[in-house]
């Protein structure tokens, strides 16, 4: 068991080092990464398509990379926004890693990109432990998933800078208890912002883009307790893109 844990820690430490390097390299190009995590079916792709479209309409240079085990369906959907999009097929791997992400960006990411949105593999377990060199980590949960989701996946929600509730237009139909959900987020990540969104109703659309741009410019950032408790993670509130790490890894 000790050897297994040692190997896991070594893998995560290597990823942290790669993430640090990637963050600095992208910062040198003026690019900030937004890492989007959620369960399958949360509505992540639909919301991201709207955010990308809004960015294009506002003249903000953005790009998106989406990861799945199979198919290029999400890339096709995101490409409708008119911004550069790349599909990554993980061949069974349940998460992206910093070195993998860097390899896919090499020679592809357009010069001048201000924000790179990374749609991680639909999974709240494995991706939560891997820093991708992001400036902003966002976790999404739909109203259909239950109010106790943050308690079931404390690492994913505990390391988030921003939490988005999706599909709020059907909240009443599924008897979603928003107050309980917010209270559970507060338990694992005190002070984290929780935003209501509905692609169908247009509620909250544009908030993700605004928060990402603010994070890129080094605006005041929420610092998750789990991040502060990790001894090798720097204070996110002092970060300017690429000057200091904003997301480190906290092992649970």
UniProtKB/TrEMBL annotation:
<dbReference type="GO" id="GO:0005525">
    <property type="term" value="F:GTP binding"/>
</dbReference>
<keyword id="KW-0378">Hydrolase</keyword>
<dbReference type="GO" id="GO:0051604">
    <property type="term" value="P:protein maturation"/>
</dbReference>
<dbReference type="GO" id="GO:0008270">
    <property type="term" value="F:zinc ion binding"/>
</dbReference>
<feature type="region of interest" description="Disordered">
    <location>
        <begin position="229"/>
        <end position="252"/>
    </location>
</feature>
<feature type="domain" description="CobW/HypB/UreG nucleotide-binding">
    <location>
        <begin position="33"/>
        <end position="195"/>
    </location>
</feature>
<dbReference type="GO" id="GO:0016151">
    <property type="term" value="F:nickel cation binding"/>
</dbReference>
<dbReference type="GO" id="GO:0003924">
    <property type="term" value="F:GTPase activity"/>
</dbReference>
<dbReference type="InterPro" id="IPR027417">
    <property type="entry name" value="P-loop_NTPase"/>
</dbReference>
<dbReference type="InterPro" id="IPR003495">
    <property type="entry name" value="CobW/HypB/UreG_nucleotide-bd"/>
</dbReference>
<keyword id="KW-0479">Metal-binding</keyword>
<keyword id="KW-0342">GTP-binding</keyword>
<dbReference type="Pfam" id="PF02492">
    <property type="entry name" value="cobW"/>
</dbReference>
<keyword id="KW-0862">Zinc</keyword>
<dbReference type="InterPro" id="IPR004392">
    <property type="entry name" value="Hyd_mat_HypB"/>
</dbReference>
<protein>
    <submittedName>
        <fullName>Ni/Fe hydrogenase formation protein</fullName>
    </submittedName>
</protein>
<keyword id="KW-0547">Nucleotide-binding</keyword>
<feature type="compositionally biased region" description="Basic and acidic residues">
    <location>
        <begin position="232"/>
        <end position="246"/>
    </location>
</feature>
<keyword id="KW-0533">Nickel</keyword>
<comment type="similarity">
    <text>Belongs to the SIMIBI class G3E GTPase family. HypB/HupM subfamily.</text>
</comment>
């Amino acid at each position: 068991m000790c050897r297994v844990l040692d190997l896991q820690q070594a893998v995560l430490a290597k990823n942290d080092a790669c993430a640090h390097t990637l963050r600095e390299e992208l910062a040198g190009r003026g690019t900030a990464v937004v890492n989007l995590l959620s369960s399958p079916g949360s509505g992540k792709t639909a919301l991201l398509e709207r955010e990308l479209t809004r960015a294009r309409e506002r003249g903000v240079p953005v790009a998106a990379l989406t990861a799945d085990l199979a198919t290029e369906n999400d890339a096709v959907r995101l490409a409708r926004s008119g911004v550069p999009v790349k599909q990554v097929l993980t061949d069974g791997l349940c998460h992206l890693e910093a070195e993998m992400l860097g390899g896919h960006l090499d020679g592809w990411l357009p010069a001048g990109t201000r924000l790179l949105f990374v749609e991680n593999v639909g999974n709240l377990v494995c991706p939560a432990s891997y820093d991708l060199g992001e400036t902003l980590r966002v976790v999404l949960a739909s109203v259909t998933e239950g109010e106790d989701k943050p308690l079931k996946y404390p690492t994913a929600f505990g390391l988030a800078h921003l939490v988005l509730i999706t599909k709020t237009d059907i909240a009443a139909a599924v008897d979603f208890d928003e107050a309980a959900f917010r209270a559970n987020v507060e338990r694992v990540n005190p002070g984290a912002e929780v935003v209501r969104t509905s692609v169908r109703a247009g509620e909250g659309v544009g908030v993700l883009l605004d928060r990402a741009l603010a994070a890129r410019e080094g605006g005041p950032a929420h610092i998750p307790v789990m991040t502060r408790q990790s001894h090798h993670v720097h204070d996110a509130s002092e970060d300017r893109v690429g000057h200091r790490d904003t997301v480190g890894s906290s092992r649970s």
